[in-house]
Amino acid sequence: QNNGKLKDSMLKILVIGDLATGKTSFIKRYVHDFFSQTYRATIGVDFALKILHLDDKSIVRVQLWDVAGQENIINMTRVFYNGALAAFIVFDVTRTYTLESVAKWKADLDSKVQLPDGSPVPCILLGNKCDQQREGIVNNPAKMDEYCKEHGFTAWYEISAKENINIQEAANALISKILQND
Ligand code: GDP
Ligand code: MG
Hints:
The protein is α/β, with parallel strands linked by helices. 30% of the residues lie in helices and 26% in strands. The mean pLDDT is 89.
């Protein structure tokens, strides 16, 4: 055992996806329980930290990395991905074309970061803005499940950063998945 010592782990999690899908809003809601309607593109690499006390003996520091305004470049630098243990890929359920980029984001991720055994890092797909009218395939959960299986996603969630829907659930699912692999 760890002789009563505190177990303290740092989890680097990436949040990637097209511009204006709500990556920054998701992070702000999860970390600060805050939402702003005003759109401000993130500049540079932004990250936020949330500290979880899982029990008396373990602390998890969840570090969320936001791609920050380079969403159109799609080929993120390796430095950004270094040391990441998992990722969220975000699309906008009101603009299904943002789902078309998801496979590219996933491929870019998988080409740049792997677990020590060479397998892809756990990745959860987030369909944000579910407080609004959904488009296309998002209305078909079975198709979305199939899509996730095909592209190697751990799971998918419909979320709303605005209305605080499924934010905790999605984050907890990814964190549990990381700790399982650990
Ligand atoms: P990013 O470019 O991916 O970081 O996207 P932002 O977080 O900056 O959000 C882009 C825009 O979408 C902003 O105007 C947000 O207010 C809006 N937005 C983000 N999340 C939601 C949501 O859950 N519902 C709605 N209706 N709008 C959202
Ligand atoms: Mg942003």
